[in-house]
Amino acid sequence: MLVPGEVLLNKIIFIRKQKVILDRDLALLYGVSARRLREQVKRNFGNFPENFMLILNKREIELLVAQSAIPSTRHLGGSMPMAFTEHGVLMLANVLKSKQAVRVSIRIIEVFIKLREMLYDNTDLRLALAKLEKRTENNAKNIEVVFKYFDELLLKKINRKPVKIIGYKIPSKRK
Q1: What is the C-alpha end-to-end distance of the chain, expressed in Å?
Q2: Coil, strand or helix: which one is 60?
Q3: Does residue 31 sit within a domain?
Q4: The domain spanning residue 60 has which CATH number?
Q5: How many domains does the chain contain in total?
Q6: How many CA atoms lie within 13 A of 77 on its CB side?
Q7: Are 137 and 38 in contact (CB under 8 A)?
Q8: Are 85 and 48 contacting, i.e. CB atoms less than 8 angstroms apart?
Q9: Cα dist. 141→107, 130, 132 in Å?
Q10: pLDDT tens-digit profile, the chain (175 residues)
């Protein structure tokens, strides 16, 4: 069973500036109960350092409910949920030791990589836009200076007294 990338992308959320997937979502994808997944993690807790797995606090859970990432706190089954980073997902497959867990983990890693590439591409685009914006800002300042000079020239022309013409005057012919 190949899990579509869109399904996996919808499971990835951002918590503590990291892309993670909740334990209940991983359990569903791996074909195990969330309880069994948590048990295996607790048995192998040393394999999951802080950059592999987060245990969510109440504030983060409330935020997930508010953002509709989870329907309610009751949905969590009374335990504090765990969230796994890309590396934690791979470690989970090793801990669960099922073929489905390994296949799904590989697919999840591929989606994480695609997501990273998309963010990198967007970063390049953002940098190019910032550069263009800076150039436009400089052009706007230059245009402002030009208009200021035009205004000064107009004021000088308006405030200028009529100049008396000096020199030889040709008498007009009388009829």
Answers
A1: 112
A2: helix
A3: yes
A4: 3.10.260
A5: 1
A6: 9
A7: no
A8: no
A9: 51, 16, 14
A10: 566 667 777 788 888 888 888 888 888 888 888 888 888 888 988 888 888 998 888 888 888 777 766 666 565 556 778 888 888 888 887 888 778 777 888 888 888 888 777 777 777 777 777 787 777 777 777 788 888 888 888 777 677 666 677 777 777 776 5
pLDDT in tens, 125-137: 777 777 877 777 7
Q: Residue 11 sits in which domain range?
A: 5-121
pLDDT digits (tens, 9 = 90+) for 86-119: 888 888 878 887 787 778 888 888 888 887 777 7
Answer whether residue 143 is part of any domain: no
Q: Give the position of tokens 């245009």.
A: 143
Both tokens assigned to 160? 């200028």
One-letter amino acid for residue 170 of the chain: I
Beta carbons within 8 Å of 111's beta carbon, 6+ residues apart? 5, 8, 9, 12
Q: How far apart are CA 159 and CA 6, in angstroms?
A: 70
